[in-house]
Amino acid sequence: MGVARAATASEAARRSSPAGLLAIAFALLLGFQAIRVFTTHTVWLIGETSSREILAIVVLGGFAAAILAWPLTRTVGIRAASLWSLRLLAAAAAVGQVSAVPGIDFAAGLAGTIALGWFLAFLPALGSAAPMALAMALALDLTVRIGFITVDAPFAHHPAASAVVAIAVAIVALGAPSISRQAKQLPGWRDAWPLIGLGPGLAAFLILSGNLGQVIVGADIDFRAAGLALAAGAAVGVVWTSALIRARPAQKRLLLGAAAVVLVVGFLLFDAGLPVAGLGAAAVAAALPVLLVPMVMRTDGSNRVAPTVVSVTIGLVVLVVLLFVFYSFYGPGWVLWAAVIGTALVGVGGSLKRSRVVEDERRARRRGWPAPIVAAGLVLLPAAAVAGTAAPPDAGQSEPDGLRILTYNIRQGFGVEGRFDLEAVAQTLEDNPADVIALQEVGRGWVISGGADTLTWLSQRLDMPYVYGAAAGDLWGNAVLTRLPVQSTVHHFDNPGRIPRGAVEIEIDAPGLAYTIINSHFDHAVDGGPTRAAQARTLLDIWGGRSRTLLVGDLNAEVDEASMQLVFDAGFLDPDAGGPPTFPADGERIDYVLHTRDLAVLEVRRPLTAASDHEPVWVKLTPHALAAVESR
Fold first, then answer.
1. Hey, how many other C-beta atoms are within 10 angstroms of the C-beta on 584?
2. Which tens digit of pLDDT belongs to each residue from 212-238?
3. In CATH, 2-389 is 1.20.1250
4. Which CATH superfamily is domain 403-631 in?
5. What number is the average pLDDT over the span 526-532?
6. Between 20 and 30 A from 405 (CA), which of 210, 212, 261, 340?
7. pTM of the model
């Protein structure tokens, strides 16, 4: 009996070793990255040419493939199946990181998503290391994206991003055999059901507590404040999770109840848009991993794999449904409420498991605090270092001889071939410097677009302040980058078309002269002519006949369409008339810099770039009186 107890304690010590924790955490990190890669490339490779139904079927199929862990385990056993899931995670991440082909990236993301589903089903077999590693993985995922200014490592075309993925792949590949040897018994039906809560829990993370763009926009704070708040919350979550694992039953219930309250109150503060909304987001980041503990914590198990596999598959289907509804209908608030409340209920309910706690969890109570505190520090310090040095860009001045303006539909950072590359967008803008940069199709944290806040990234990269106007939900719309003093107004169209649309109106002061610039994006439907005409009338009403006004953007109409004739009849001029297509794929010129008659054009450029499926338009203007002086 004593020998058996000693053997169990020895095995528990190996399970909870720092190296084992790190390997499990990095495996989960690669899985979270795979989710973004898979959903993003599904949208850009399939979604643009397919219906929402086809898109939903493809994504649902990828996540529901977690059910294949059932026959796999029955065939090769739990240890071999868990080893395969880890190796597939590592291989998919490695292939996706070195690939420059969207189709291969899609396949790698799909493989990684399937492997994550399998590995999640085996987590409860890993003892107290599972919830601890899950908390660390959530924090590491956030740290990586803070480090690359909201961009996930698979989408950051930077040597450091490749190094991060390479390190994670190496740690997982080397640790896979020892991790798989730990996998023995899994919970029965009575104790496996809380795994369903991973669906709403991961949805809350992907949409909110792990989403910098959502917090920046929702809390109306800058990248630095959002990064510091979320990093601090994630670090607290790591320590709190460790405390829960070590707690005795009565303490466990108290800690879980407190986490549920903090999660709901934190989301209330964020959702209400209060001045402390950033603090609310930090509270969500801190409480979320704590409530995931009962979902994956090991209890006495059985040799049956069906309970955990079925429960995890249901949870991932819930995740797909929540993500699909949230992004298909542009951020309905009830989706996040469902994710938060679902996580709190399942987390607290999962603590009511009646199976006895296994030996390694009792042993965990007797261990000290250095490991979780060190882990939290490793998360917080790098994130704080990056976020803390990312100061908001400063204002400046324009050139004295005119106003340079560029309009560009950036397609959320996806180039002609469907590959995400914000650096290519930034290089295009640097090669054509402008006082005002008007952008359309600006994504600010959609999971289906890599989770990146493209506007924050470009603002930091180009050192230019921004003005943002949401159109479809909170995280997709139009923006203006400028260092000039600016006052702005955001407008939404009463005739939104197939996707909600709007405009950003700014008043700028370009040394001694005021300009009005209206940046817009019209409906794109082939039969949307009447909608675009209504949107043109709205813009003309916004304009109201003011002098020195520019109407710019992707108007999705050629010059002979009724919407454009309305604008020209109102007195706007087109300095690029007769120019080449701005949307080469269909051979259409639909992007414009239009101006009132009191402005004279000094220069027009049409840069050629593959950084988007649109081409930018660059124009330099000056008031007519100044143009006459310069001509003398």
1. 14
2. 999 999 999 999 899 989 998 998 999
3. yes
4. Endonuclease/exonuclease/phosphatase (3.60.10.10)
5. 93
6. 212
7. 0.92
